[in-house]
Amino acid sequence: MVKSEQSENKQAPVVQNRFLGFRRPPIKEVLHKINDKITADPVRLVGENVEQGIISLQEAIEIAEEKGLDLVEISPKATPPVCRIVDYNKFLYDQKKKAKELKANSTKTEIKEIRFGPNTDEHDIDFKTKHAMKFLGDGHKVRAYVFFKGRTIIYQDRGFKLLNDFSERLTNVAKVEMEPKLEGKKLYILLSPKVKK
Predict the structure, then answer these.
(1) Where do you find CATH 3.10.20.80 in the chain?
(2) Which residues is 174 bridged to in the sheet?
(3) Which CATH superfamily does the domain covering 35-106 fall into?
(4) How far apart are the first and last CA of the chain?
(5) Tens-digit pLDDT string for the chain (197 aa)
(6) Distance CA 71, CA 176 (A)
(7) CATH number of 109-193
(8) I need a surface site. Which of 76, 88, 112, 154 has the fewest CB within 10 A?
């Protein structure tokens, strides 16, 4: 029996394992358009040692090439888009450094905790107020709380008075971010440093 050409050329279908799949190469994020990748024309040229103003894209690229630098589009949504003549690698390094500094500064703000009991005496309150002043002066937030152990939960009014007095002592350096609030056996207040003018 002679097989038809159609049946000879027929190949088994390729089955793709849905779990393995095909890996896509990671997409590299383009942070800025540079040099010939810039499409806007004209552009607003800014930067050091250049005549600032609106010029054609070609003219801006030529100026950058003469200086041995790159033309970088820094504000694509502006009208016209803003470009700067810089060494792109140094520009990226500076941008990363600034971002790292901002991140470091934002993580420096910690919440420091100060604990009281409903029967904390005046001396301890003074001592803990001094600690709170230092924390707030360093730019940290302060979460003060009264812990009610066992049956002392019946003295909630003392806790509220204590935390309100505590925040009053710190009015020059702090503002109340969260009023006293009872959560379980703890009565909290959150204070944040006042912004220095």
Answers:
(1) 35-106
(2) 193
(3) Translation initiation factor 3 (IF-3), N-terminal domain (3.10.20.80)
(4) 98
(5) 344 444 444 555 545 555 555 555 554 455 788 888 888 889 988 877 788 889 999 999 998 898 888 899 988 888 888 888 888 888 888 888 888 877 766 656 688 999 999 888 899 999 999 999 999 988 889 999 999 988 888 888 888 889 989 999 998 899 888 888 888 888 999 999 987 65
(6) 49
(7) 3.30.110.10
(8) 154
